[in-house]
Amino acid sequence: MTATILRPRLLDDAVAQARPVRQGVVTSAVGLGLTVAGLDAHVGEVVLVGAEGAPQTAVEVVAADPSGVRCMPLGRLVGVTAGTPVRPTGRPVLVPTGAGLFGRVLDGLGRPIDGRGPLHSDALVPLDHPTPNAMGRARIDTPMQLGVRVLDTLTTVGRGQRMGLFAGSGVGKSSLLSMIARGSDATVNVIALVGERGREVREFLEDDLGAEGLARSIVVVSTSDEPALMRLRAAFVATRIAESFRDAGQDVVLMMDSLTRVAMAQREIGLSVGEPPATRGYPPSTFSVLAGLLERAGTDRIGSVTGLYTVLVDGDDHNEPIADAARSILDGHVVLDRKLAVTGHFPSVDALGSVSRVASKVTSRQQRDAVTALRTVMAARRAAQDLLDVGAYQRGTNPLVDAAVDHQDAIDAFLRQGMDERITAAASWDALGSLVRMLGVGGGA
């Protein structure tokens, strides 16, 4: 019986070894990519460049035409010439999943880079994953605690919502993300650092995130010096890991810093394979990639992925193409103001310029009344700011402005929060209710 079982296996092995090896050759290496001829490979497949037995570099097929396939490197291309052999792997990029990833730091392909040994993942899954069906998504009806007072009240986020954090450079986006990672009530945090300066990665992990935040987080890092495809893949690897936990019925917070650098990576890839430049040099594929990436977050039949994406606005222009496209896809936006940041107001959230599109679905009528009361007072103060600056405002002209001036310190104290200050959503609503009663303008929490 044993011989009967072994004989077919030996035959299968012999047939497999006798099959011809598919192999192509590099015909050109121009700019960021390679052109390979004679290789029957599909878009998304990983192929290896280099002779067998010699150091090989993984590249991914990103485009195909009758003359061959276009590939982008997933590492450094060194020593590649015309005629270098290329072998297919027959598989796409695979992503590790499971609880063994908690506390680990991965690169843009899901490989550990924290020096703590191999991963103990449950499985390797393909990078691609279907977007939840629009009619199968659960409705967003439960608030998500972020642990930041101004966000939990004035721009309340629901489980499965996708929010953008819009700001210029150096305004406190990474610090705000670290506060959310430590203070949210999600079971899993997945953090993608895309295009970050290498110097800032350890600072974020050790100073901003800390041991407590890292313990329930999975961090995916691709620094600014890595190939464009690695930076793009880091965003999708983080999203795929978050999806795997959602598929298991868990509530995940996916934080990505920054969406703009993901778009820049796709711009490099698109232009290198011959796409025509469109708005500000971004090829059309950039906007479809952004939509595909952002739509993968959100709710499904079970579980949720609450997406928080930072958008690095160019020159503090909040209407530049990527910011405008992201705002149209996302379910709300939080604006960080440089004027607040330079005065030491942290988090530097412009509460009046920030909107959550699902806040009315996850808050009570009493909570919404309190938010409206505070926003009305703050808006009245802003409208009269020029008169106040020159001393032309006459007290008694507008009771809302009077209340804002009399209690400006209390309003600022509510909007501000220390990096290490932990506060629950319930405590934030209580603080808002007390502030509104102090202002004497109605509403309550």
UniProtKB/TrEMBL annotation:
One of its GO terms (molecular function) is proton-transporting ATP synthase activity, rotational mechanism. Transmembrane segments: none annotated. It comes from the Bacteria. Coiled coil: none annotated. It catalyses: ATP + H2O + cellular proteinSide 1 = ADP + phosphate + cellular proteinSide 2. Residues 159-340 form the AAA+ ATPase domain. One of its GO terms (cellular component) is cytoplasm. Its main location: cytoplasm. The keyword Transport applies. One of its GO terms (biological process) is protein secretion by the type III secretion system. Keywords: ATP synthesis, ATP-binding, Cell membrane, CF(1), Cytoplasm, Membrane, Nucleotide-binding, Protein transport, Translocase, Transport. It is found in: Cytoplasm. CDD domains: ATPase_flagellum-secretory_path_III. This is ATP synthase. It comes from Curtobacterium luteum. The lineage of its organism: Bacteria, Bacillati, Actinomycetota, Actinomycetes, Micrococcales.
